[in-house]
Amino acid sequence: MSHLSTIVLLFLLTALLYCTNAEPLRGRISVEPYSVTFLPEIPAPRQEHAITLLQDRILLVGGLSSNYSYTPDTITAPSAPVTVDTVQSYNIKTRSWTDHKPAPYPVNHGNIAAVKGRIYLLGGLMGGNFSRWGAVTNSYVYDIKKDTWKTIAPMPGGTERGASAMGVSGSKIYLAGGMRFLDMGGETSAQASVALVSSYDTETNTWNTDLPSLPESRDHVGGAVIGNTFYVAGGRDRGQHNVRGDTWALDLKNTTSGWRELASMPTARGGLSATAVGHCLYTFGGEGNAEGVGGVFANVEVYDTKQNTWEALPALWAGIHGTNAVTGGDGKIYIAGGGYRLGAGPSNFTVAYQPHPKCFA
């Protein structure tokens, strides 16, 4: 069989497995030059959790969890997950999971970032009822060596939110967009998306809210800092089905210039995972797929910041949303947990994705 025929066959097999809602795959799926490797699962299913990378560890904070882990075959099962304060990490080198001291409060849609060996949890959503959550100003720093949480300056009043796009530049953590509350009770859904942009300086323990707002409100939006630019892509505006494909950029060396509009994502979606790889922004999955299984996307699309172009890549094994992606020191992209269906349906998968080497050229 020719090299090209092998690639085509692998792609068709992957697509077939997805379309037939097969059980979660184990091992490795390869569609050259991309591959997905399934890793040890999260000890408990999770979605709408915060994810960040600290050296060789992928840290998961809070989220929605249950005693039942969804698969692509069980997306119609009843769901009643609860917000948790659970903190766990996956060690890339030892391929093992570790429990850590719980977060100071149960939180979903938390805003999280790692700076100089510490983890910062900034706001997020709280609420005892499964479908009604409100944003909090609470902010903390986690020292993984001491396994301790410490209170830091809270988000300024009126800027509290969760589900923001996150980016780090030097000592500063940038947050773009987000939502102030989410109420999915009854026949209507109230979701307060915002266009706010702010930053937290980890060295001075201070907030800056004097940054240009996004051109439009967004929540469940992807983002990352590449070079000196904060890129924001996709997201939604006041509802799971009101998905957007806009891509914007803010020059962090000249923030007064405001946000620039860039080439739009080929597939509009919210609740997507995003991470920087070299000079590229990779995006995975997302919510708001009116025609897809479970209402979620399996799409993988990558933005080239040098060319201002998007490229659609082979799809994932199934549609996912409500998680995020991080890029390890080994150049691989890691995704842990997420929902297999619109709304809540937490799962415990962990995968490593091999990106295209062109992003490092």
UniProtKB/TrEMBL annotation:
Signal peptide feature range: 1-22
SMART domains: Kelch
Residue ranges that the Swiss-Prot or TrEMBL entry lists as coiled coil: none
Gene3D superfamilies found in the cross-reference section: Kelch-type beta propeller
Protein keywords: Signal
Alphabetized PANTHER family for the sequence: GALACTOSE OXIDASE, LD33804P
Protein name: Galactose oxidase
